[in-house]
Write a structure and sequence with these properties.
Length: about 375
């Protein structure tokens, strides 16, 4: 069945999001306000009876000097990805964006293809023959997700591959680590943590680490730790105004959309993290810590408090976000994978991000530009 697509209001988009148990925080209307270099637009899919049955936040970035745009739907759109007529959902979107002046479209279908248990990840890390998680036999495969990948490829979409050795995708992460919370008691979740995590949480409690929820006024403290983390872990940090804009935009839409947690010890802030919530899905978004007093284990204390709060508010999943695909011992990101795997959750592979060139010349020029950044 063909679907009618048109631009919808923020209110319509947000109301639709509220009917779904899980929608990416990158697909709520306010996310467009976080990105000032992009123009956010809400799209809606309507069935024959005029009911809103799908929605997506598209971010449009103009080419300098031209009225042509790169269109991006991060971790979206929110449509029926298992539909037998998937092309009838995507073709109206492409037609609309081409009329809008887009020369290339990128999207990230929110569909899972494979999962690895924490034990499988641990075994893969210990196996000297395993180079990448993708090459290790999955604990479970999702047939619907694998069908989406096949259908997109046959329809002319091209999957963007990781741009570097760290295994992270060019845009949003293809591999994440999640802790299922639905149907589990807090005691069961704690028992799912590995021995090191449980030991570190007790050590933090005994040392007197206190984790508190902060506000917008605490963002500079968070950012100072975040900048130190960026220098230590060799990544380019976002500026403080980005997080202040993020806080203002997301909490204006929903006062519980974004939270800030800080771990204190003897008056010293040792770690901090932001947490995002949409429906029953909770994300650990940005984390930061100092190298001081690491022996009191503030990071484990911080994550445990966030897991507890997510469970208390009825979340179905706690999402640690991106992990590396590489299992190389020399890769500094492997330590992050080990830390997240200690939570007892599972590594999850999504379908990844996909491009559709509406103008092949401009699309190729964009690819060359991005490869040189």
């Amino acid at each position: 069945m063909s679907h009618r697509l048109k631009v919808i209001t923020r209110e319509e988009h947000l109301a639709f999001t509220g009917t779904r148990p899980s929608v990416s925080h990158l697909q709520v209307p306010s996310w467009g306000d976080v990105k000032p270099d992009w123009r956010g637009e809400s799209l809606g899919w309507f069935d024959g009876a005029g009911r809103l049955v799908g929605a997506g936040l598209v971010l449009l970035r103009p080419l300098p000097g031209l009225r042509r745009y790169f269109a991006y739907l991060p971790e979206g759109p929110v449509i029926d990805w298992a539909a037998a007529d998937l092309e009838q959902w995507l073709e109206p979107m492409l037609a609309h964006l081409e009329r809008r002046g887009a020369f290339s479209v990128r999207m990230g279908p929110p569909v899972v293809t494979r999962r690895w248990s924490a034990d499988a990840v641990k075994a893969a890390i210990a196996d000297p023959r395993a180079a990448r998680l993708a090459d290790v036999e999955a604990t479970a495969q999702d047939p619907d997700g694998l069908r989406v990948v096949d259908r997109l490829r046959r329809a002319g979409w091209r999957r963007t591959e990781p741009g570097g050795a760290d295994g992270f995708a060019a845009g949003q992460p293809r591999y994440v680590f999640q802790v299922p919370l639905a149907g589990r008691s807090l005691d069961e979740i704690r028992q799912g943590l590995n021995q090191q995590w449980r030991r570190n949480i007790k050590k933090a409690e005994k040392a007197g680490v206190k984790v508190v929820e902060g506000g917008a006024e605490d963002l500079p403290v968070f950012h100072a730790l975040y900048t130190e983390t960026a220098e230590r872990d060799r990544f380019v940090p976002r500026p403080l105004p980005y997080f202040q804009r993020m806080w203002s935009a997301l909490t204006a839409e929903d006062p519980h959309r974004m939270r800030l947690y800080l771990a204190h010890h003897d008056g010293d802030t040792l770690a901090a993290a932001t947490m995002l919530t949409v429906g029953e899905h909770v994300w650990y978004s940005y984390g930061a810590s100092t190298a001081r007093k690491r022996e009191v284990q503030p990071n484990n204390a911080l994550q445990w408090r966030m897991l507890c709060d997510a469970h208390e508010q009825g979340a179905a999943v706690y999402d640690f976000r991106g992990i590396t695909d590489t299992l190389d011992e020399s890769d500094h990101l492997l330590g992050l994978l080990r830390f997240k795997a200690g939570s007892g959750g599972e590594a999850v592979e999504y379908a990844g991000e996909w491009d559709y060139p509406l103008n092949k010349v401009l699309h190729k020029a964009l690819g060359l530009y991005l490869s040189r950044r």
